[in-house]
Amino acid sequence: MRGVYNLNMKTCNKCNIEKPFNKFDKTPAGNLRNTCESCRWEYKKSLPSYIDKKNKVRLGNKNRQYNLKKSYDMSLEEYDQILKKQNNKCAICEKENSHKNKFLFVDHDHESNQVRGLLCHACNILIGNAKDSPQVLERAIAYLKLFS
After folding, report:
1. 4 in a structural domain
2. Residue 118: beta bridge partners?
3. Which of 144, 136, 72 is nearest to 104 (CA)?
4. What is the domain range of residue 21?
5. How far apart are CA 53 and CA 72, in angstroms?
6. The pLDDT of residue 29
7. Structural domains of the chain, count
8. Both 88 and 125 in a single domain?
9. Are both 80 and 129 inside the same structural domain?
10. 107 CB burial (10 A radius; 0-12, 13-18, 19+)
C-alpha cells in the first residue's frame, strides 16, 4: 500500500531488506545506523585484521587533525606543543588523561574561541558546568572550605 510506513522497521542500505529497529546499531549520537548489524558484521569480517587496525590509527589521526583545525584552527603540532608545555598532564588537576579517548580535551573560550589549554575529561566538565565563570568556581571553593 503506497504511502504507508511501518514505524518500527528500517531498510538497510546494504542489503535493502526491511528489518526491525533492534537489528540496527546506534551511532554515538544515538541515531540508528543505516546499515544493519549483520551487514556491518560481514563487512568487518571481510577486512584483514592488520589492515583494520592500521586504518583505525590512520583514520583516527586524520579525524583528530580535521577536528582540531575545524573547531579550534589548531594543528596537531600546536596541540602537541601545548601538551609538552603541560608535561602531558591536565592544566588543572595535573593528572595524565585517563578518559577513554586517550587525549586531553582542548579548553577554549566559547566567545573568542581562543585556546586556553588542555584538560582531562573531569576538569573539562567542571569548567563547562561552571559556565566558564570564575565567580561560580570561587563560590564552590568557599563552600568546600566550610566543610574541611
Report:
1. no
2. 106
3. 72
4. 12-46
5. 28
6. 84
7. 2
8. yes
9. yes
10. buried
Does the pTM surpass 0.70? The reply is no
Residue 126's H or E segment, with its range, is helix 121-129
CA pair distance 118, 120, nearest whole angstrom? 7
For residue 5, being part of any structural domain is answered with no
| CATH at 79 | 3.40.1800.10
Q: Which of left, alpha, beta for 89 (phi over 0: left; psi -120 to 50: alpha)?
A: beta
Q: Are residues 64 and 82 in the same domain?
A: yes
Which amino acid would we find at residue 125?
Answer: I
The DSSP output letter for 70 is H
**pLDDT, tens digit (0-9, with 9 covering 90-100), for 138-147:** 999 999 999 9
Side chain identity, residue 1: M
* pLDDT number for residue 50: 47
Residues of the chain with pLDDT under 70: 1-6, 47-60, 98-101
Q: Which of 136, 68, 124 is nearest to 92 (CA)?
A: 124
Other C-beta atoms closer than 10 Å to the C-beta of 90 total: 22
Amino acid in position 114: Q
3-state secondary structure of 10: strand
